[in-house]
Design goal:
single chain, globular, 304 residues, alpha/beta, six-stranded mixed sheet
Length: 304
């Protein structure tokens, strides 16, 4: 990848900052079509007269990534069409949900690896961050269009994002509507996480970005929300966790995971969302809000 991109520098004199090269690799993991499409978007797309005097920065890469995702080029559309196949769903759905892989066969896994949707090596995971972003957006597009929420509701006077209000409103929405909305997803096993991501994407899109990590068999999904506020960027971690044991044990484990991810990202705040899908507990038992007792950036715990 580096050798390919430096050919552009040799021919035009336009340099890639080291953090830009790192970002292109991180976002694509070397997938050939993505590397070429991202580089073309950065260097040439929408420019009648390309200006090679400025170096290519990390910010240029992230902006090009978003444009590429929004444009739905043929390659990405073909991949998203594959999501509707049962043998693909059997592998991707547990990854999105953070559950154990229980119903897929070795043939399913070989097929999806051949497609390039998941990484070639263990552990089983989505192949790269661009695919990790495209997949939930495709699966939640219809739901996003039907959510009657406005971005401006969650912007404070300083231009920052009011994450506590955003998650609080989702908690109420989930309480009132989850039984109807979750089952509308074709990937219903990951319905709770997808509904949260649809709600967040509806507010964040056009203003900030969401980065996603999925943990197969770890009962969690990690989301990092980046929001520009003036000259600064706010970073918020949202950790989605499925309750599969006692509540306090789930909270203790979730807090460690959330704090670790916050430290990794330099987050200014964190939110641990625990989904309880048990039929033998009341809604009152499942729904709560707590502030974690800790030093450093705050973590709010939400029961849903």
């Amino acid at each position: 990848m580096r050798a390919l991109l430096l050919q552009h520098t040799e021919e035009t004199g336009q340099a890639f900052a080291e953090e830009a090269l790192s970002a292109i690799w991180e976002q694509t993991q070397g997938q050939p079509w993505l590397v070429n499409a991202l580089a073309w978007e950065i260097c040439f797309e929408g420019r009648d007269e390309p200006d090679y005097s400025d170096s290519i920065t990390h910010e240029d890469v992230i902006a090009a990534r978003e444009a590429l995702i929004l444009r739905h080029d043929t390659h990405l559309d073909q991949l998203t069409d594959k999501l509707q196949e049962d043998r693909v769903r059997r592998v991707v759905e547990p990854i999105l949900a953070g559950r154990e892989l229980s119903y897929s066969s070795s043939e399913d896994k070989k097929y999806i690896r051949d497609l390039g949707l998941v990484a070639q090596d263990a552990p089983l995971r989505i192949a790269n961050p661009i695919y990790s972003e495209v997949i939930p957006r495709v699966l939640t597009d219809t739901v996003q269009d039907e959510l009657s929420i406005e971005q401006s509701t969650y912007i404070n006077d300083q231009g920052g994002l009011d994450m506590s209000r955003l998650i609080g409103d989702f908690q109420q929405f989930f309480r009132e509507n989850s039984e109807i909305w979750v089952n509308r997803f074709s990937y219903s096993e990951a319905g709770c996480q997808l509904l949260l991501q649809a709600f967040l994407q509806r507010v964040i899109k056009g203003g900030g970005s969401i980065e996603r990590e999925y943990g197969l068999g770890k009962m969690r999904t990690d989301l990092l929300i980046r929001w520009p506020a003036g000259d600064d960027t706010e970073n918020f971690v949202v950790e989605c966790k499925l309750r599969h044991k006692g509540l306090e044990a789930a909270i203790a484990e979730g807090l460690k995971q959330t704090a670790r991810y916050m430290d990794k990202c330099g987050a200014t705040g964190g939110h641990l969302v625990i989904f309880d899908c048990s039929a033998d507990r009341s809604r009152e038992e499942k729904i709560f809000r707590r502030n974690a007792a800790r030093t450093g950036a705050p973590i709010t715990i939400w029961g849903m």
